[in-house]
Write a structure and sequence with these properties.
Layout lengths: L6 E5 L4 H12 L3 E6 L18 E5 L14 E4 L6 H6 L1 H21 L3 E7 L26 H21 L3 E6 L2 E2 L10 H10 L4 E4 L5 E3 L1 E2 H12 L6 E4 L4 E3 H12 L5 E4 L14 H7 L7 H18 L1
Parallel strand pairs: 1-2, 1-4, 2-3, 4-5, 5-6, 6-11, 7-10, 8-13
Antiparallel strand pairs: 9-12
Helix pairs in contact: 1-6, 3-4, 5-7, 5-9, 7-9
The structure holds uridine-5'-diphosphate (UDP).
Length: 317
């Protein structure tokens, strides 16, 4: 059995996924040090943790040298813009945090003899020609297209992580995260679930890009984070998909959002972004077999919980 890490550095810990992860780590008794430059993260996501024993926040850009005094058992690298809207607005920062940020995180982990955990992405599969996506699929990515800044940064991050593992012989974990949603997504982050829910709650037009036939598989944040914790403590070195295999077209998602929010929004169609993947669904065989992990929250239930969260924000604005 792998030892359970105790003092954990989370880069990007003030972000959507990072903040949920910190909460769970603290809840199981770990100490947590968050490094975040708050570019897409928000102190509001973690302010309720400031008084928790063992919680430290440091405002820092992890693309520059990082150092954390004292023992560290694991470095979890979650810092990065992750919504297409964000990474298209911050292409250089995205490339830097995926490359230099990963290198710095690995350097810290190595210096501390700590485990390194990389938040990678289903975007490494690009516009996949294998469906559903298994970890041994190498992907179909346009390196010079606009999305390349995120996809290639994460592919480099995976390569760097494996090189450190092979060359320096220390423990690494790589999670490939599929579309995840839930409370603490930013209402304006541009992702499909946040866009549709906010539009529906305001009875504004719901913007489908393209004809809505492209598909995604949406995982509720609590399930996703449960998968991270299982992987962190497991003995899998190569990449592991963590996502919900329930696959929906974007049109189906729009209809479900309208239903769940009881909205009078109309649907409008806008241009499909360049290189938008046509399909995406995780093959979770590895996670199920090696981690005993399976998502438990259906899309409708997750959307209801997320709508409640956005409802509070939308009615305040
Ligand atoms: N999308 C959409 N309307 C929106 C936002 C996104 O139709 O208002 C589409 C987008 O083109 C993509 C899918 O929804 O096909 C998922 O987009 P998202 O930005 O959430 O993440 P991606 O999976 O593309 O990284």
């Amino acid at each position: 059995m792998a030892p359970t890490p105790r003092r954990i550095v989370v880069t990007g810990g003030a972000g959507f996924l990072g903040s949920h992860l910190c909460e769970r780590l603290l809840g199981r008794g770990d100490e947590v040090v968050v490094l975040d430059n708050l570019v897409t993260g928000d102190l509001g996501n973690i302010e309720h943790l400031f008084d928790e024993p063992g919680f430290t926040f440091v405002e820092h850009d992890v693309s520059t040298y990082i150092w954390v005094p004292g023992d560290v058992d694991a470095v979890l690298h979650f810092a990065s813009p992750a919504s297409p809207k964000d990474y298209l607005e911050m292409p250089i920062q995205t490339l830097k945090v995926g490359s230099l940020g990963t290198h710095n995180g690995l350097g810290l982990a190595r210096a501390k003899s700590a485990r390194f955990f990389l938040a990678s992405t289903s975007e490494v599969y690009g516009d996949p020609q294998v469906h559903p996506q298994t970890e041994d699929y190498w992907g179909h990515v346009n390196p010079v297209g606009p999305r390349g800044v995120y996809d290639e940064a994460k592919r480099f991050a995976e390569a760097m992580t494996m090189a450190y593992h092979r060359h320096h012989g220390f423990d690494v974990r790589i999670v490939r995260i599929f579309n995840t949603y839930g409370p603490r997504m930013r209402p304006e982050d541009g992702r499909v679930v946040s866009n549709f829910l906010v539009q529906a709650l305001r009875n504004d037009p719901i913007t489908i890009y393209g004809d809505g036939s492209q598909s995604r598989s949406f995982c509720y944040v609590d399930d996703e984070v449960e998968g991270f914790l299982a992987l962190l403590d497991a003995d899998i070195t190569g990449p592991c998909n963590i996502g919900n295999p329930g696959e929906f077209t974007i049109s189906e998602l729009a209809d479900l959002v309208v239903e769940v929010t009881n909205s009078s929004s109309e649907i409008v169609y806008e241009a499909l972004p360049v290189d938008d993947p046509t399909q995406r669904r995780p093959d979770n065989t590895l996670a199920e077999r090696a981690l005993g992990w399976k998502p438990t929250i259906e899309l409708r239930e997750g959307l209801e919980k997320t709508a409640e969260y956005f409802d509070g924000l939308v009615s305040r604005s």
